[in-house]
Write a structure and sequence with these properties.
Elements: H1 2-15, H2 30-49, E1 58-68, H3 78-91, E2 97-109, H4 111-115, H5 121-127, E3 133-138, E4 155-158, E5 163-167, H6 177-185, H7 284-294, E6 319-321, E7 326-328, E8 334-338, E9 346-352, E10 362-367, E11 371-374, E12 382-390, E13 403-407, E14 420-426, E15 430-431, E16 435-442, E17 446-454, E18 459-468, E19 471-478, E20 485-493, E21 496-505
Parallel strand pairs: 1-2, 1-3, 3-5, 7-13, 15-21
Antiparallel strand pairs: 4-5, 6-8, 8-11, 9-10, 9-12, 12-13, 14-16, 16-19, 17-18, 17-20, 20-21
Helix pairs in contact: 2-7
The structure holds zinc ion (ZN).
Length: 506
């Protein structure tokens, strides 16, 4: 509530009296309104000529452009994008329209796209995905040079460019900005069409004039002129609330006949932003019109007939390594491991020095595997990690619980010893006071030095230089002197170093 009040104050301060172009969503008035009204009226006619009678679920490709500033800062998080897509699919479930990720552009670092898109059309066109609904997640939504700024426009649809732009702080399950903008994308006007920039106020007074400040005939509460006024859609009641009304029960304005209007505050296409989130919806006619728009020739690029992986992700992966505050061997090359779950084509892997994942998280998308080697961590640190399973369409599964581990200062060479085909330790775990057997298979003979480190990186046992022969070689290494615990056996060779993890048990 307080947040909204701040926004509207900023609106009032920055819009001034001459500004009639922008609302909180950046769509309203001007050329935008002309283009969209024309499309809407065409769609209305098409709907009248050929009513939507049957529809089966369609899957619409979406490209998320996750924009940072030129220094790479300020990008929306991957987790937030997955959460947003999950919510969008819930919002559109009634329409039988569903959305899937056709790509995440998570490497766009560009100040212009980040905060002044009206200067960035050329570069944005180059980055545009021609086979998807393009959604740009930016810091400041700026459809034009004037009247725009942080705190005012939450998002907008550009009919000229045919893409959606939204502020990153509007991304996520609790916000209504994206479904609203996608409504515009599919030709819907505001329910308060004509009042977008200048909402009804006591200055306008009751009863309201027959033409709204935006030049659109004023819709009457009794519906008598609903086809030719307001949003031109008859199953959405009149609405004169451009912005500035903070409640969810609007009953202050009279139509031109003197009847108090009773808008439907839960329609996505209104500017009532703080009603109960789960109850926002599109009216039946709005839904039909969006379908007509989806079927326009100009929207052929969205109608791919592609069905993404529909398998729901119901299990939570179990993090298996490194966990429980253990030391990971070789801080510069750590192989993270977890259990695979059905339906997950990808895993979002986050690693950070804070359990909140807010310091400077390393983020990786791991596809088609349930382990991943990370090489950019620092020695002698405590780290936290978690993963989130998803596929292009199913993005609702949450992050796993957080696991923690430590790094020591043991480095491992990340390039394999080329002469060495394979080496294993058995048994592993090995009992204390017994012997572990090292089995190696080499393409050519070479000499290597074996050293056993404890998990803190201190030398626990020197096994010295050994000759590895072509073919198979076996060594028995004594573990008699060792305490139970986790160790790292390193093999040093002129090409580098390889390590294996050894567990000594009681
Ligand atoms: Zn809007």
């Amino acid at each position: 509530m307080k947040f909204l009040a701040t926004i509207f104050l900023l609106c009032a301060a920055s819009f001034g009296i001459a500004q009639t172009h922008d609302g909180p969503c950046g769509n309203g008035g001007g050329e935008w309104q002309e283009i969209l009204t024309e499309r809407l009226l065409q769609n209305k006619q098409a709907l009248a000529d050929n009513p939507v009678q049957f529809r089966s679920t369609v899957y619409i490709p979406v490209r998320f452009h996750m924009v940072a500033n030129t220094n790479g800062q300020g990008r929306v998080t991957h987790g937030r994008v997955l959460e947003q897509l999950c919510r969008l699919n819930q919002d559109f479930a009634d329409l039988d329209m569903q959305f899937y990720i056709n790509g995440l552009n998570d490497n766009i670092n560009n100040n212009a796209i980040y905060s002044t898109q009206y200067t960035a059309g050329t570069i944005m066109n180059l980055l545009r995905d021609p086979a998807a609904l393009n959604i740009w997640i930016v810091d400041v939504a700026t459809p034009s040079a004037g009247g725009s700024g942080q705190g005012t426009i939450l998002g907008y649809y550009s009919p000229q460019r045919d893409w959606v732009v939204m502020r990153r702080d509007q991304t996520g399950a609790s916000r209504v900005t994206l479904p609203h903008e996608v409504g515009h994308f599919f030709s819907l006007p505001h329910t308060h069409n004509g009042w977008d920039s200048t909402p009804w106020s006591s200055d306008i007074g009751n009863p309201s004039p027959t033409t709204s400040p935006g030049g659109v005939p004023t819709e009457r509460q009794d519906g008598a002129n609903c086809n030719t006024s307001g949003d031109y859609i008859c199953d959405t009641p009149p609405d004169y609330n451009g912005f500035g009304f903070s409640g969810c029960n609007y009953n202050i304005a009279q139509d031109p006949t003197g009847a108090f209007i009773n808008p439907d505050e839960q329609l996505f296409m209104s500017y009532f932003l703080n009603c109960v989130r789960d109850e926002y919806y599109f009216s039946p006619t709005q839904q039909d019109l969006m379908w007509v728009d989806y079927n326009r020739p100009a929207r052929a690029y969205l109608r791919t007939n592609f069905v993404p992986n529909l398998t729901e992700i119901t299990e939570t992966p179990l993090l298996t390594f490194p966990i429980e505050n253990e030391f990971a061997p070789g801080y510069n090359s750590i192989n993270f491991q977890w259990t695979a779950v059905a339906g997950a084509d990808h895993y979002l892997l986050e690693i950070d020095r804070a359990a909140t994942f807010t310091i400077n998280p390393s983020i990786f998308i791991v596809s088609g595997a349930n382990s991943f080697t990370v090489t950019n961590l620092e020695p002698n640190r405590t780290y936290y990690w978690r993963i989130r399973p998803y596929n292009a369409y199913r993005t609702c599964a949450l992050f796993t619980p957080v696991a923690t581990f430590r790094t020591n200062n043991v480095t491992v060479n990340t390039t394999d010893i080329t002469d060495l085909n394979e080496w294993t330790i058995s048994p592993n775990p090995v009992f204390a006071q017994s012997v572990m057997q090292i089995n190696l298979e080499a393409a050519r003979g070479f000499e290597g030095v074996f050293t056993l480190y404890n998990i803190a990186g201190q030398v626990a046992q020197q096994y010295g230089m050994r000759r590895i022969n072509p073919g198979n070689t076996t060594f028995d290494f004594d573990v008699e002197a060792l305490q139970p615990g986790i160790y790292i056996l390193a093999l040093d060779h002129e090409e580098g170093r390889e390590v294996r993890r050894v567990v000594v048990t009681r």
